[in-house]
């Protein structure tokens, strides 16, 4: 990369990473991963790993997708509204009754810039939310606390995780094959509060709860491939390595491995079929490997291991499989409509509903619609709406002493509206 090109891209990247952390975090879907990086991807159910990119943000689905794009700039914003909480029946520790999290509307930005090179390749920079998790439970009355209050007998309770990806993509189209590679910088921030009552179970009770935000940085690699088998049919593949992150030292007594919280690996395969000149059908399958991150995958409790220890308890999450279906209908030269559906398996299993009150990521079915309107020869507006109906998981209340006779039901639903703007040059 020449200095003339590299310095502006690095400045854009640093600015995007800084602005991203000013955005409010959210509780995402597919575990805690987002359904798509921008309005275009969300409108078609997150599918599109085999389709040429509609704009510079397509590198978030597949780094190869931007290989055929020219110089352009994309900017977008999602208003994300999750509703989450739990119901406790006959609990002996957790606050009984129906308790709902506050803090229900979030703003999530995205940004991308695509720059063609003299050799026919492109450089692309994109900043977007990979995912997040957020709950904020009020200081509710709890008759199980012997005079204390709160979901976990420690006042207001909740957690707040956000992850931002900053990807630098080099992509090229050679004949009927497009490929791309994206070294990716990852930033995380996290805080937890109201879980101080778990101190006796922690290897480091001073780094367990109520320590404000902590930040983590890491790095990994994303890559992708697209193959045009015929003018109508193409296949795609994309994936990311596990992103190795620095530890959350302020929460070394909460997450297994002394605050270790890596970003799991993921892989997607898919196809795009042009059924008619104005209609393209998409089908993707994604697998997210939460089992590779002990802080997420380890069971709770995990034998005699303490919170924060080398093999400490986690959230009991399993790997997630996601089927994504999409359709793109070009109504005319100005208007393109997009439709989508995604079904994700549930990472939260019945035995672990107690700890997952902090992260009730139990939604499964996603219905999306949106489109792109070409306002001028250079400017396009994208939009999408996503509806995720309520889903729930019920299981036993589990304390350090084991399961009680109480029952807990974690539940969540979601609604989101996204807009975006792309300027070509």
From TrEMBL:
It comes from the Bacteria. It is a multi-pass membrane protein. The keyword Protein biosynthesis does not apply. GO terms for cellular component: cell outer membrane. The keyword RNA-binding does not apply. Residues 1-28 form the signal peptide. One of its GO terms (molecular function) is long-chain fatty acid transporting porin activity. Keywords: Cell outer membrane, Membrane, Signal, Transmembrane, Transmembrane beta strand. InterPro entries: OMPP1/FadL/TodX (IPR005017). It is found in: Cell outer membrane. Belongs to the OmpP1/FadL family. This is Long-chain fatty acid transport protein. It comes from Allgaiera indica.
């Amino acid at each position: 990369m020449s200095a003339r090109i590299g310095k502006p891209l690095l400045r854009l990247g640093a600015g995007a990473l800084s602005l991203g952390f000013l955005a409010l975090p959210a509780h995402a879907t597919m575990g805690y991963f987002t359904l798509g990086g921008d309005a275009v991807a969300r409108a078609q159910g997150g599918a599109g790993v085999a389709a040429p990119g509609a704009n510079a943000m397509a590198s978030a689905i597949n780094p190869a997708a931007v290989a055929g794009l020219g110089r352009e700039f994309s900017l977008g914003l999602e208003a994300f509204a999750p509703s989450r909480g739990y119901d406790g029946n006959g609990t002996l520790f957790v606050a009984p009754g129906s308790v709902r999290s506050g803090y229900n509307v979030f703003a999530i930005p995205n940004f991308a810039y695509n720059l063609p090179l003299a050799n026919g390749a492109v450089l692309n920079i994109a900043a977007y939310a990979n995912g997040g998790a957020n709950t904020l439970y009020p200081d509710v009355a709890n008759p199980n606390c012997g005079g204390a209050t709160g979901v976990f007998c420690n006042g207001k309770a909740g957690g707040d995780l956000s992850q931002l990806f900053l990807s630098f993509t080099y992509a090229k189209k050679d004949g009927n094959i497009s490929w791309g590679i994206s070294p990716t910088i990852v930033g995380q921030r996290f805080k937890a509060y109201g879980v101080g009552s778990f101190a006796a179970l922690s290897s480091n009770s001073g780094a367990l709860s109520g320590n404000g935000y902590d930040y983590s940085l890491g790095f990994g690699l994303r890559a992708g491939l697209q193959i045009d088998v015929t003018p109508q049919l193409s296949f795609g593949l994309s994936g990311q390595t596990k992103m190795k992150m620095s530890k959350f030292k302020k929460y070394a007594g909460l997450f297994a491995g002394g605050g270790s919280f890596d970003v799991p690996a993921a892989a997607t395969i898919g196809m795009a079929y042009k059924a008619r000149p104005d209609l393209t059908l998409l089908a993707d399958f994604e697998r997210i490997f939460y089992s590779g991150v002990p802080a997420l995958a380890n069971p709770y409790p995990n034998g005699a291991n303490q919170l924060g220890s080398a093999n400490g308890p986690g959230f009991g999450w399993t790997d997630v499989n996601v089927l994504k279906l999409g359709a793109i209908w070009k109504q005319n030269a100005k208007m393109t409509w997009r439709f989508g559906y995604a079904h994700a398996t549930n990472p939260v299993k019945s035995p672990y509903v107690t700890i997952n009150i902090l992260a009730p990521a139990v939604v499964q079915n996603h219905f999306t619609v949106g489109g792109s309107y070409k306002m001028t020869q250079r400017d396009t507006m994208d939009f999408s709406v996503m509806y995720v109906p309520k889903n729930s998981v019920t299981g036993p209340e589990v304390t350090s002493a084991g399961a009680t006779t109480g029952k807990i039901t974690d539940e969540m639903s979601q609604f989101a509206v996204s807009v975006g703007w792309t300027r070509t040059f």
